[in-house]
């Protein structure tokens, strides 16, 4: 799987230490100080500007709206007999206890485990990169990749409510309506996605190998 | 952070096109032509740098065109319907997106976001890819603004959530199946097909290899 792997004259150092800045999108290198990629036009940043502040800001915003997302009802079910509103956790638990255990677990994972795990993982990466022992980057980088890949899947619960609220309108027999938690939860997913996108993975590798990053060092 | 301070240290001439910095860890690699079907990985963090496929542009354009046609079907036909106790109710993909706004004006922004995530952004992404890679697939020169179209398409990737929507629909069906009998409309099958085509397309899409191909076609 490693055919064509790198070997060459400049191997063994970072672009930053060589006075170059690499385009994150097309891979082309430019001299440090260049602001736009010559090939694809993307903005060039050797390291994201104010990455830490932006990550913490989005992280905090996501955490703040995650609180009402769990307190307000996610879905309100009207039937002939009663009106029943369920929170995110309540809805998943209902599935586990009354309905389909497997699907209930999917919902629990998507709307409880992934968001909570994401807050913890982003905070962990941010704190751990303050002081990282050499060789510690691989695990941290793996954690960042998992967060970045899996974060968007939390949106499942918002889509579940969207389709149920659109579909279940059976006169006075049954009706399903979205609760305020849906918009809070949707915002929380988007804010934490933006937190993950603001995190510069190169920061992780710099922390593990401080000598390789700074040309003026 | 002032990147300009290090100007004097860097080489003044533009570096070779064979040189790549790992987007994840910034390690430099001198990667010439990578044979199609193989991968070049970063020696430091193991990120895949290049994974060119034979005829990638043509396959991607074909899959994206198919997905775009299925999206037109998915938004124009009935998606799902349910029946219980002599009552019927149906919903289209648009109804699903608009359900928040209809329930309460305060949730209208969520309808806009859902519509963007499941219809608008996936369509924009498919159009951008077809526009940028179409000429490549036909062996022609790249169109004007092909680079911008391709760059924006790739940036939209995390925000196009058609595949997440279809999993959400599956979960919703389990919840509703105890309440009513569910019927599937043509839009449902079109949406499932579209998700499969998009997943196949994203599997073979290697962004940096296609940038090299676009470069050659410019």
TrEMBL record, chain A:
Q: Does Cell inner membrane appear among the keywords?
A: yes
Q: Where are the transmembrane segments?
A: 56-76, 101-128, 149-170, 176-197
Say which domain of life the source belongs to.
Bacteria
Where does the signal peptide begin and end?
Answer: none
Q: Which GO cellular component terms are attached? A: plasma membrane
**Compartment list:** Cell inner membrane
Keywords on this record?
Cell inner membrane, Cell membrane, Membrane, Transmembrane, Transmembrane helix
Protein's UniProt name: Paraquat-inducible membrane protein A
User: What is the protein's species of origin?
Assistant: Meridianimarinicoccus roseus
From TrEMBL, chain B:
| InterPro entries, sorted | PqiA-like
Q: Which Pfam families does its entry note?
A: PqiA
Cytoplasm as UniProt keyword: no
Q: What are the TM regions of this chain, as residue ranges?
A: 56-80, 112-138, 159-181, 187-206
Q: Which UniProt keywords apply?
A: Membrane, Transmembrane, Transmembrane helix
* Record's protein name: Paraquat-inducible protein A
């Amino acid at each position: 799987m490693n055919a064509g792997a790198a070997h060459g004259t400049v191997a063994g150092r970072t672009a930053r230490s060589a006075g170059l800045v690499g385009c994150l999108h097309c891979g082309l290198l430019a001299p440090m100080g260049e602001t736009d990629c010559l090939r694809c036009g993307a903005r060039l940043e050797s390291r994201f500007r104010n990455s830490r502040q932006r990550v913490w800001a989005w992280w905090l915003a996501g955490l703040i709206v995650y609180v009402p997302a769990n307190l307000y009802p996610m879905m309100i079910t009207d039937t002939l007999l009663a009106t029943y509103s369920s929170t995110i956790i309540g809805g998943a638990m209902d599935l586990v206890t009354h309905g389909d255990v497997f699907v209930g677990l999917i919902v629990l994972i998507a709307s409880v485990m992934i968001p909570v795990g994401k807050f913890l993982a982003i905070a962990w990466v941010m704190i751990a990169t303050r002081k990282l022992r050499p060789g510690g980057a691989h695990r941290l980088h793996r954690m960042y990749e998992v967060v970045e890949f899996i974060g968007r899947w939390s949106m499942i619960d918002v889509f579940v409510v969207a389709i149920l609220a659109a579909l279940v309108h059976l006169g006075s027999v049954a009706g399903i309506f979205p609760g305020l938690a849906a918009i809070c939860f949707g915002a929380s997913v988007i804010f934490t996605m933006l937190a993950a996108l603001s995190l510069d993975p190169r920061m992780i590798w710099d922390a593990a190998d401080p000598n390789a990053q700074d040309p003026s060092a | 952070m002032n990147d300009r301070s290090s100007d004097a240290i860097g080489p003044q001439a533009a570096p070779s096109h064979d040189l790549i910095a790992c987007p994840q860890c910034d390690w430099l690699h001198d990667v010439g032509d990578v044979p199609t079907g193989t991968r070049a990985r970063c020696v430091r963090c193991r990120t895949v740098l290049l994974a060119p496929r034979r005829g990638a542009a043509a396959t991607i354009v074909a899959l994206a065109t198919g997905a775009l046609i299925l999206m037109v079907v998915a938004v124009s036909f009935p998606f799902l319907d349910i029946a219980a106790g002599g009552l019927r109710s149906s919903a289209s993909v648009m109804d699903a997106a608009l359900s928040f706004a209809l329930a309460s004006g305060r949730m209208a922004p969520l309808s806009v976001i859902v519509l963007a995530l499941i219809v608008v952004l996936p369509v924009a992404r498919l159009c951008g890819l077809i526009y940028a890679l179409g000429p490549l697939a036909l062996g022609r020169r790249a169109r004007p603004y092909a680079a911008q179209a391709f760059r924006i398409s790739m940036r939209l990737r995390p925000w196009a959530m058609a595949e997440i929507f279809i999993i959400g629909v599956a979960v919703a069906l389990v919840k509703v199946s105890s309440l009513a009998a569910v019927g599937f409309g043509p839009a449902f099958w079109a949406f499932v097909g579209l998700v499969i085509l998009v997943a196949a397309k994203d599997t073979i899409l290697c962004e940096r290899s296609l940038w090299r191909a676009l470069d050659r076609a410019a």
